Amino acid sequence: MTRCDEPTAPGLARLEAWGLARCPLRDLPRLEPIAAQLTQAFTDGRPAAFHSYLDAADALTAYALTFAPQTYARVAAALTGILARLPAFPEGRPLRVLDLGCGLGSATLAARDCLAPRTLAPTCVDWSAAALQAVTELIPGVRTQRADLRAFVPERQAYDLIVVSFAFNEAFPDPIAAEAALRRWVDALTPDAPAFLLILEPADRANAPRLHALARELADCPIYAPCPHRAPCPLFPARDGVCHDVRRFRPARPLILLSRKIRRTVSDVKFALLALGRPGGPEAEGFGHPDFLRLTGPMDKAKGVLTCRVCMGDGASRRLEIPVAALSAERRHALLGRQRGDCAWLDGPLDTRKRLVADTVQRAADLRFTDEPPPTLDDLDDFAFSID
Question: pLDDT of 76-100, one tens digit each?
Answer without folding.
Answer: 999 999 999 999 999 999 999 999 9
